[in-house]
Design a protein that fits this description.
By secondary structure, the protein is of the alpha+beta class. It is built from six helices and five strands. β4 and β5 (195-200) form a beta hairpin. α2 runs parallel beside α6 (110-141), α4 (58-76) runs parallel beside α6 (110-141) and α5 (82-96) runs antiparallel to α6 (110-141).
């Protein structure tokens, strides 16, 4: 019972809520672990369970959620930082008004609000952007990333006949619609399986 009483404290509830979000965000951006996701759900359940014992201002809770959503939007649509600024304002305003001040002597500590708001913005924006960069780099190093790469013919290529070219540090089978002499520079136009279609540079 003492544990439940301790959980039903504004700062504790707020901290549990944010930690739960961080854990779920990590699970989403690093799928396959499972433990962060389960821990995140447990922390959020505990925080929402504890919220029932306090006078919650649901408009404040909605502003916190809006702030997190704006951070996510900023990560996927980086620009002038307007979404990030809007997220900071919404989250701080929501956190300050998360509990009904008329029915409670104290709310969430301002220092805790500022610290976790800044942390949430940084983690959400930078973590999601890092994940996006990884996905983009995978595309560039895959088959699609070969298109436009330059290389060198390692033997004479006759129209429609398979020959050898050196591209991206490797020897490839290649065909061309034109005559390409050995040692001439080539550019990759298409790739099908392990065979390239090339043209003169």
């Amino acid at each position: 019972m003492n544990i439940l009483n301790h959980l039903a404290e504004p700062n504790t509830i707020y901290l549990l809520m944010m930690l739960g979000f961080y854990a779920l965000l990590y699970e989403v951006t690093h799928p396959g672990f499972g433990v962060p996701g389960v821990l995140g759900v447990i922390l959020l359940v505990l925080s929402f369970f504890s919220l029932q014992s306090l006078p919650v201002n649901y408009a404040g809770l909605a502003l916190i959620i809006l702030g997190i959503v704006l951070f996510v939007v900023e990560a996927f649509a980086p620009g002038l930082g307007l979404f990030a600024v809007g997220g900071l304002i919404a989250m701080i305003a929501g956190s300050l008004n998360l509990f009904d001040s008329g029915r409670m002597p104290t709310g969430v500590s301002l220092s805790l609000i500022l610290a976790l708001t800044a942390t949430t913005a940084a983690i959400t924006i930078f973590l999601l952007r890092a994940v996006m960069r990884v996905h983009r780099s995978k595309v560039k190093t895959g088959e699609r990333g070969m298109i436009g790469e330059q290389g060198e013919a390692r033997q004479d290529l006759l129209p429609g006949k398979v020959g050898k070219v050196f591209v991206h540090g490797e020897i490839w089978n290649a065909i061309s619609n034109e005559i390409i002499k050995k040692s001439e520079r080539i550019v990759v136009e298409k790739i099908k399986g392990l065979q390239l279609k090339v043209r003169k540079e």
